[in-house]
Amino acid sequence: MKLTPRDAPRFFAKPEPGRTGVLIYGADAMRVALKRQELIANLVGPEGEEEMRLTRIPASELRKDPALLSDAIKAQGFFPGPRVAFVEDATDTLAKTITPALDDWQEGDATVVVTAGTLTPRSALRKYFESHTNAYAVGVYDDPPTRDEIEAELAKAGLRQIAPEAMTDITGLSRVLDPGDFRQTIEKLSLYKLNDPTPTTPADVLACAPASTEAEMDDVLHATAEARAGDLGPLLARLEAQGVQPVGLCIAATRHFRTLHLAASDPEGPARGIARARPPVHFKSRDRMVRQAQAWGVNRLEAALELLIDTDLQLRSSSRAPQAALMERALIRLAYMPRG
Known about the structure:
There is one protein chain. This protein has 340 residues and is α/β, with parallel strands linked by helices. It has 3 domains: 132 residues, P-loop containing nucleotide triphosphate hydrolases (Rossmann fold); 62 residues, no CATH class; 125 residues, Up-down Bundle (Zinc Finger, Delta Prime, domain 3). It is built from 16 helices and 5 strands. Strands 2-3-4-1-5 form a 5-stranded parallel sheet, with helices on both faces.
């Protein structure tokens, strides 16, 4: 049976006993691994691995010895309790090995958990689990976690009192960090708030958050919007050394100034406009961008957007002008605009 992304978190948190197996597949190995860890932990409990109720079978070993899975499914351990046979990094080539073992599954046998990378709808392994009456197939996609998933992660870490502004910041972090980094940040926040009964604040989140993965790009955009033309040369040189293309920088600058224009145009003020921006503005940049929107004003921001759109057209045209120089000139012109 297919398990939808909406129902999967509930199942992983409290898996139904007596299921034959679960296939977890997806392009992002980290996301798949985190879901698999959660599922297995909730199937066998905290002592399951120590009590040898979890059998790990790498795909490479199963190819060498196809009987490994059947043996693990039927084996009875010394300790009572649910058992799991985990096949790691399976591919479609193992479908003919895995499916007979699951066909022979009976009540009381170990639950089979299989992880895989990307599987197309034609995949034999995926088709088998999706058509099975007592097994699940779960696709793990690169979508950011839902509000329920974030709250569950916070509760698991013992963080139950979260100020609304801090929750907004945590949600923003979940959209810019990969799942592993986000979970580590939550764990770090939990340790940071250990024995502190006060609600988690934005300052607490800021103290535990990792540096932005796009810090160099952000530095260029902030220097431009804050009229620091003198800082642009070294910053742009670093970006160019990292391989950032002028078109990509232009797209990022346009997005930044559109957000500023949205904030400056908001009838409830720039702070409210920044809060409404989609995708959400990274919380570390929020206050700076509010000040930038106030300094620029709507008219100058519209002029800035016109300049960026013209620059984008030039960069994508057949002009022989050096693209890096075109982009640098545009940013310097922008940096001088607020002074005009």
